[in-house]
Amino acid sequence: MARERIGCEAGMGNLVKFGKWPSLRDWQRPSLRFPPIRKDLADLAGQLIGWLTVLKARLEGAPADPPETLRGVRLKGLEGRSIHRTVRGDMVRSKSEVAIANILYGIEREGRLKYSIEPELPFANRSGRQADFMIEANGTTWFWEHCGMLSDENYRRRWEVKRELYAKNGYSIYSPDNPDGRLIMTEDSLETGLDTHAIDQLTRKLFCN
């Protein structure tokens, strides 16, 4: 290795000495050998390019499809384990659910509601189907679903099936035009992010008045 480095330096010195910058052909000479790029560094560079692509699109105000590496990370969070801890000490699947749970916990401490995380739906047509949150307030049961990947076709299809299940059992999505709805639905994406201020205002409007 030392011999190759000396050869490289000698070759570079001769080229610079005679006022000639090394060309591609010069770099390919046996005396100018360099070790191959490590695969892990190449993979890291590819991921960095993916992140920069999304950042560039967001700065330019143009939507962009997330690269496969980012899409895979988001899907792992969707289907994976609960690894994020809330202020109350519960474990949830995403940072967005952490934010919602912490808002609910603040209102729970005021004695205005009680909530549970990922309860089994009592009307589910199969076991293992859970809500993100269930809220008990003023003698009424609410369910809360947060959708973080509606741009993904499979995710959106699963959400539509679940939404229809809620509707069949009397839970429609709350909105100013549907004040009797008892299903809260919020969402975020790579492009829009999560508006915790709006979520806090909505939660206080529903449970603190």
What's the count of strands?
A: 6
- CATH third-tier fold name of the largest domain: Trna Endonuclease, Chain: A, domain 1
What number of domains? 2
Rounded Rg: 27 Å
CATH architecture label name of the largest domain: 3-Layer(aba) Sandwich
What would CATH call the class of the largest domain? Alpha Beta
Task: State mean pLDDT (0 to 100 scale).
Answer: 78
Draw up the topology in text:
Blueprint: H1 2-17, H2 24-27, H3 39-59, H4 68-79, E1 84-85, E2 91-92, H5 95-109, E3 114-117, E4 133-137, E5 140-147, H6 153-168, E6 183-187, H7 196-207
Parallel strand pairs: 5-6
Antiparallel strand pairs: 1-2, 3-4, 4-5
Helix pairs in contact: 5-7
Can you summarize this structure?
By secondary structure, the chain is α+β, with helices and mostly antiparallel strands.
Give a description of the structure.
There is one protein chain. This protein is of the alpha+beta class. It has two domains: 39-65; 82-207, Trna Endonuclease, Chain: A, domain 1 (3-Layer(aba) Sandwich). Helices cover 46% and strands 12% of the residues. The chain is built from seven helices and six strands. The chain has helices at residues 2-17, 24-27, 39-59, 68-79, 95-109, 153-168, 196-207, and strands spanning 84-85, 91-92, 114-117, 133-137, 140-147, 183-187. The chain has a four-stranded mixed β-sheet with strand order 3-4-5-6, with helices on one face. Strands 1-2 form a two-stranded antiparallel ribbon. A hairpin with a 2-residue loop joins strand 4 (133-137) and strand 5 (140-147). The longest helix has 21 residues, at 39-59. The radius of gyration is 27 Å and the shape is globular. Residues 2-18 and 62-79 have low confidence and may be disordered.
